[in-house]
Design a protein that fits this description.
Elements: H1 6-18, H2 22-34, H3 37-44, E1 54-58, H4 68-85, E2 93-97, H5 103-116, E3 121-123, H6 130-139, E4 144-148, E5 157-163, H7 174-183, E6 203-205, H8 210-221, E7 233-236, H9 243-252, E8 258-260, H10 286-295, E9 299-303, E10 310-316, E11 319-322, H11 325-339, E12 345-350, H12 356-363, E13 367-371, H13 375-384, E14 390-396, E15 400-403, H14 412-428, H15 433-444, E16 446-455, H16 458-474, E17 479-480, E18 483-484, E19 487-490, E20 508-511, E21 516-522, E22 528-537, H17 545-566
Parallel strand pairs: 2-3, 2-4, 3-6, 7-8, 7-9, 12-13, 12-14
Antiparallel strand pairs: 1-5, 4-5, 9-10, 10-11, 14-15, 16-22, 17-18, 19-20, 20-21, 21-22
Helix pairs in contact: 1-2, 4-5, 4-7, 9-14, 11-12, 11-14
Length: 569
C-alpha cells in the first residue's frame, strides 16, 4: 500500500467516494489495496479529454477512462454549456446509442443528467446507427446531439460523441468550452439526475418515422438513372447496429438480393467473431468473403459497428479484393458528380485522403476543398462555403463518406446504397467496378495510398509521439527513399493565413513534387502516430493495373518506412 504516492491515493479515494457504480469503485479499491501505482497512474492521471468531437476510451474505473462517473460529469458539463449559450431554449438534445455492453447504461445517465438540468431530450429507445442520430437532430431542431458509441474500436472501449446545433460534430472553440465546463463539474454523486420515473414531460422517444424520412431525403440526391438491380450483395454490419437499416434501405431502393452474414448480423457488443470490429482490419471480412464465394455474389459491403463507415470488396481474377477507402471515395465522387443536377457542385476530402479527388472534381467542373482530418471539418467547411457551392460529396480515407446534405457526418447507410447503385450502373455498361476504376486512373493518373501506424500506448507512448512530431518539425528530411522532399508544411503554425477548416493541428506534410506527398500526424482517438504516403504515376498500358498498383504501393511502403526511421520510431 505504501507504494502508492499520497497525492495519487487521495485523488483515487475522492473518485471512489463520488463514483455511483459499485463495480468501478471495487476496481479502484482493489488497485489501491494491491499498491498498483502504475495502473492507478494510468487511470487517474488527469481526465479523459475531448478528442474527435467527444470522448473515447476503455470502459473501466478512473477519471481517465469511460465509466458512469465520467459520463455523468461530461453530461453535466455539456448541460452547463448549453444553458449558458441559450438559457431559455426549448430545443431538445437528441441522444442515441450503439449496442456496446455499456451503452444503454451510459445513455440513461446522460438522459438523467440533461433532464435534471431542465433540458428537453429526445432519445432513441433502441440502438441505432450514428448517422441516423445526426439526421434526427436536424429534423427535430436540436440544440445538440449525443451518441454513445466507440465506433469501430475494440469491444472494451466506449465513447461519447457530440454534435452541435448545426448538425455537424463540434469543433474548437466549442469543444474547449465544453471541456472547461466538464472540468468544473462537481463529483458525479453530486450531479442531479432524474430517473425515468420522475422525468415527466422532459424526455420523449424519437418518432418512429425517422428512418423512413431519412430514406426519402436520400432519394432526392440519388442519381436519377439509378433503378436498382438484381446484384447478389453480401452484407455484414460487423455485429453492429446497421443490419436491418442497411438491408431495408437496399430493399427500398430496388436492391432486394441481400445475403446477410448471419454470424455477424445481430447487434452484439461482445463482437464474438472479430478481434477488432473494423472492416479495414485483416480477417474482418473473412466470413463475408466465404459467403460470397459460396453464393457467387457480385459485391460485399460492410459497415463498422455504428454504421458510419463503409467497406467494399469485389471479385477480380486474382480473387476477392477490398477497395481502399480512397478508391471507394473517388469512385463515389465521380459517379455522383456525373449525375449531379446542381449548380456549382462541391466535393471535399480530408487532408490525409487521396489528392486524386482534386483531379476528379476538376474533370466535372466541380469545386474541390481539402480540410483537416475528420468529418467535423469536412462539414463545417461545406457550411462555410454554402453560399458559393452546393455540397455533393465528402470523404476521408478511413472508409468515411457523406452523400448529399441530409446527414452532416459520415454515413455508411447512404454510402452503401449509392455504391450498390454504382455497381449496378457498371453492369448496365457491361463493365466491372474495377474497369470503372481503371478508366479513372487513365484520366487522372494511377494514385496509390499507404498508411503506417506506429502504436505507442500509455502516457509514455504519448510522450514519444509528441517528441517525434517535434523532431520532424524542427529537422524535416530532405529525401525519402530516393524521392526529393520539395516542400514542408507544418500545420501547427501559420493558421492565421488559412481558413478555419485548416486550423492549427499537429500535422506535417512533405511535398514530394510530381511524385505525390507524405504526411505525419498523431491519431485523435488512438495511441498511434500515423504516416500517410500518396504516390502517383501515369497509367502504363504495358502492364496490368494490378501489377502497376502493386509496384507503386511497394514504393509507397518504402517511403513510409523511411519516414518512420527518420522519426526515430
Amino acid at each position: 500500500m505504501s507504494s502508492v504516492p499520497d497525492d495519487l491515493r487521495r485523488r483515487t479515494d475522492e473518485w471512489i467516494a463520488a463514483d455511483p457504480q459499485k463495480k468501478t469503485r471495487r476496481e479502484l479499491t482493489g488497485l489501491l489495496a494491491a499498491g498498483n501505482s502504475v495502473e492507478l497512474t494510468e487511470r487517474m492521471d488527469g481526465s479523459l479529454e475531448f478528442g474527435t468531437a467527444g470522448l473515447r476510451g476503455k470502459v473501466e474505473a478512473g477519471s481517465n477512462r469511460m465509466n458512469r462517473a465520467v459520463v455523468i460529469r461530461t453530461s453535466r458539463g455539456l448541460s452547463e454549456y448549453l444553458i449558458e449559450r441559450e438559457p431559455d431554449s426549448e430545443k431538445p438534445v437528441v441522444i442515441g446509442r450503439d449496442a456496446r455492453l455499456s451503452s444503454k447504461r451510459f445513455q440513461k445517465d446522460a438522459i438523467g443528467v440533461l433532464t435534471g438540468a431542465g433540458i428537453l431530450v429526445r432519445f432513441f429507445r433502441d440502438p441505432v446507427p450514428t448517422p441516423l442520430v445526426a439526421y434526427a437532430a436536424r429534423q427535430l431542431g436540436a440544440r445538440a446531439a449525443i451518441v454513445i458509441t466507440a465506433s469501430h474500436n475494440p469491444p472494451y472501449d466506449n465513447g461519447y460523441k457530440v454534435y452541435d446545433a448545426n448538425g455537424a460534430q463540434i469543433i474548437p472553440p466549442t469543444d474547449e468550452e465544453i471541456a472547461a465546463k466538464i472540468n468544473a463539474a462537481p463529483p458525479a454523486k453530486d450531479v442531479p439526475r432524474l430517473s425515468k420515473k420522475y422525468r415527466g414531460g422532459m424526455a420523449y422517444p424519437v418518432p418512429d418515422y425517422m428512418f423512413e424520412r431519412y430514406l426519402q431525403d436520400l432519394a432526392a440526391v440519388r442519381p436519377a438513372s439509378a433503378t436498382g438491380s438484381d446484384l447478389k450483395i453480401v452484407y455484414t454490419p460487423m455485429h453492429g447496429v446497421g443490419g436491418a437499416f442497411v438491408t431495408d434501405g437496399l430493399h427500398y431502393f430496388g436492391h432486394p438480393n441481400v445475403l446477410p452474414v448471419t454470424e455477424q448480423y445481430e447487434p452484439d457488443g461482445r463482437f464474438p467473431t472479430v478481434d477488432f470490429p473494423n472492416p479495414e482490419e485483416p480477417g474482418a471480412l473473412d466470413l463475408a468473403t466465404a459467403l460470397a464465394r459460396r453464393e457467387g455474389a457480385d459485391l460485399i459491403i460492410a459497415n463498422d459497428p455504428d454504421t458510419d463507415r463503409l467497406a467494399v470488396s469485389l471479385p477480380r481474377r486474382e480473387g476477392w479484393q477490398s477497395l481502399t477507402g480512397n478508391q471507394i471515395g473517388v469512385l463515389l465522387a465521380d459517379f455522383l458528380l456525373e449525375n449531379a443536377e446542381v449548380d456549382h457542385p462541391l466535393v471535399l476530402n480530408s487532408i490525409v485522403s487521396s489528392p486524386m479527388l482534386e483531379s476528379v472534381a476538376h474533370g466535372h467542373g466541380a469545386r474541390f476543398v481539402q480540410t483537416l482530418t475528420g468529418f467535423k471539418w469536412i462539414w463545417n467547411a461545406a457550411l462555410d462555403l454554402a453560399d458559393q457551392a452546393t455540397f455533393v460529396f465528402g470523404y476521408e480515407e478511413a472508409l468515411g463518406y457523406s452523400v448529399g446534405p441530409a446527414v452532416r457526418d459520415k454515413d455508411g447507410i447512404s454510402a452503401a446504397i449509392i455504391f450498390a447503385d454504382l455497381a449496378a450502373a457498371c453492369r448496365e455498361r457491361d463493365e466491372t467496378v474495377w474497369d470503372y476504376l481503371a478508366r479513372l486512373y487513365g484520366e487522372h493518373g494511377l494514385w496509390v495510398s499507404t498508411q503506417k501506424s506506429i502504436v505507442r500506448p500509455g502516457s509514455e507512448g504519448a510522450a514519444q509521439i509528441a517528441a517525434a512530431m517535434e523532431r520532424i518539425g524542427a529537422a524535416p528530411p530532405s529525401e525519402l527513399s530516393g524521392i526529393t522532399v520539395a516542400e514542408v508544411t507544418d500545420y501547427r503554425v501559420g493558421a492565421e493565413d488559412r481558413p478555419r477548416y485548416l486550423a492549427a493541428t499537429p500535422l506535417v506534410a512533405l511535398d514530394l513534387g510530381a511524385r505525390g506527398r507524405a504526411l505525419v500526424r498523431p491519431s485523435g482517438t488512438e495511441p498511434k502516430l500515423k504516416i500517410y504516403v500518396d504516390l502517383v504515376a501515369d497509367r502504363d498500358d504495358a502492364v496490368s493495373a494490378v501489377q502497376q498498383e502493386q509496384a507503386l504501393t511497394a514504393e509507397a511502403d518504402e517511403v513510409a518506412t523511411a519516414l518512420a526511421a527518420k522519426l526515430g520510431l
